[in-house]
Amino acid sequence: MTEPLKLAIAGLGTVGAGIVKIVQTHGDLLEARAGRPIAITAISARSRSKDRGVDLSGYAWEDDPVALARRDDVDVVIEVMGGEDGPAKACVETALGNGKHVVTANKALLAMHGQELAELAEANKAALRYEAAVAGGIPIVKALTEGLAANGIERVMGVMNGTCNYILTVMEDTGADYADVLKDAQELGYAEADPATDVGGFDAAHKLSLLAATAFGTRVDFAGVKIEGIERISLTDIEDAADMGYRIKLLGVARMNEDGLEQRMQPCLVPADSPLGQLEGVSNMVVVEGDFVGQTVYQGPGAGEGPTASAVMGDVMDIARGLVIPAFGAPAKSLVQAPRSTKGADAEYYLRFSLADQAGVLARVATILGEHGISINRMRQYGHADKMAPVLIVTHKVARTRLDGALAEIAGEDVSLAAPVAIRIETV
Amino acid sequence: MTEPLKLAIAGLGTVGAGIVKIVQTHGDLLEARAGRPIAITAISARSRSKDRGVDLSGYAWEDDPVALARRDDVDVVIEVMGGEDGPAKACVETALGNGKHVVTANKALLAMHGQELAELAEANKAALRYEAAVAGGIPIVKALTEGLAANGIERVMGVMNGTCNYILTVMEDTGADYADVLKDAQELGYAEADPATDVGGFDAAHKLSLLAATAFGTRVDFAGVKIEGIERISLTDIEDAADMGYRIKLLGVARMNEDGLEQRMQPCLVPADSPLGQLEGVSNMVVVEGDFVGQTVYQGPGAGEGPTASAVMGDVMDIARGLVIPAFGAPAKSLVQAPRSTKGADAEYYLRFSLADQAGVLARVATILGEHGISINRMRQYGHADKMAPVLIVTHKVARTRLDGALAEIAGEDVSLAAPVAIRIETV
Description:
about 425 residues; 3 domains; 10-stranded mixed β-sheet; elongated
């Protein structure tokens, strides 16, 4: 019999338990497909006594994930503890340093330390894989690094945070305000008690930074992602976007411009009849554009026990079959530190101003936009009961820097009662 | 320097020329990602003198693709000639027999001879890859064999023929009849002069049979695919489906039932707001449902020079990186000859009857359906100018065999002026 591939699991939360379930449910299937048995030999978690709904009695226990990563009876260390530093990092470093393959679902760890960990993996001829870290069950890292490996990638974009997409979808469907929907989502368990990582766009930005590195052969540059969350999106914005044939999505976009790498995670208007515009609920979607393949679209569950465990075990299956490729699709030493694009591509923008309800105010806004060379495609002013008049404007294509200048000037006017909202209209 | 991976290309039509363009355009990129250079060493095609818009002067020429497959300076033979037998088969067999890897875009060849070729490949430790044969540029074979390899697959389905989807989309958009749209599509080059392979569903059925083998660990069984084309779909069907919130797609569905493997390629009604229902034009879409991952969806260009060449070269990149896995995701000898499911899952059906315009006719149809235990969900009779009354019925869930019995009886009635049309409503 061929030697089994021996797994250690560090972290037995939802995902860890899901991995155990797959191995216990599909032992024969995995062996047939991988050409060798897949066996869990050791596990580690904070609490040994907690009931996780799976039988862990056949596995060696380690209190310390670093000790787990050192065990001789382990070929692959699966890190599903989370955290960008601390025990997760120590566990992964120890495993790679000992020549063991690592499969992780930890987007924060890779977003912060991807380059050094990729180098460490290659120096030790070990695989470092992270399909589960990006877009849950969708095999998008594989599509990008392998299936589309013969393409120059032109743009990668997507909806990569199910919580945000759920909130925006429910706001549109029910007409409820952001704060109310967030509260419901927290009660339903779709959003964390501290939602900032999700609704602030940071979780999705971690993922985008990993896809960008893979797509463009660059070093992971999470700090270079321009991040805006969905906290300031109002029902007015959503309804007005819908009226114009758009939907608002927290959209990550990575593209290589002439002056460097552009990485944005921000609310965008996308056409309602595009795949991204049609995405509902907690699903994720990634769109990849390559110079030969054109546009391909990948959709699926972005989180949860089964999908995440499926992605982790997909990576394990590759390792079992002998596939060891560089973490970001090209040798870590060859990844370049791309300059950050300051310009970005011009775009149309949706603008919302909260203006004092008095004569001449609209003309003032239009004049300032005109002085900055920004031309107006359409404009709409809503009826209003109080002293504040919401004014909605869609611009023609303009550079963001130019727009920001105009918005700053308008925000400084007495008649401006709240900071203007500007949402990019992304061509998809 | 690492040894280059040496390619031979058999067939220099659109796809062959696209492969040459990728290798010539992206030499550095491919080398960086694969860890070794990728070089074309030899080519073969019917006409040596034809201008293909690419410089072929650096490559050795063979008139005979079998001689090409025997060359010592070749590691991978790329077969993009087409044809389920003849030179393509001889070329692939020779290459595999000589221990050379094969990458092919030839769905017909694999649909007819997949099992024997997979066995031959494994006996010679060679890879046999065919990403380009299914759904063009979408890396769906990779997703199924690798990314989702830890799942028990529950259902694979999709729209895998761009010509058919284009025709159905244009019929709906313009209100033109099938015959007129087909004629236009032929003039535009979207459909062949002899369209039977496309509109008859055979091309898509080839692809489905390959996905089914991969998904369920079964031997390719193209003859087991129940095939219906789109030739009998009328504008009435499309418009009526739209009225009810559905769209008609030529949908391939593969599923393992208790009594065996179900493979169907037939027009189906799918919800208009589902990903499959929203698919427009020549795009392809495949939906994979796994027991852990849930539902994932893959969309992209299903044909064309760039997308197909991208898929071929994705396979080449895997080989360059050392990945050699069985063609259908598990060793060929382990693939089982599954019985063909005779039952299939129950479904709702959309029915169209062309009845003589006379008293009691509708009651007769309803009575026959009732006698067969088929209950009616909704019914509609259109106004009509001639002697023929179109009657549309949506049933509740029913077994296809039971439905066929009722339809045969109704077709035998004098008042039935044309064979009834029955279109399955697929739950997606």
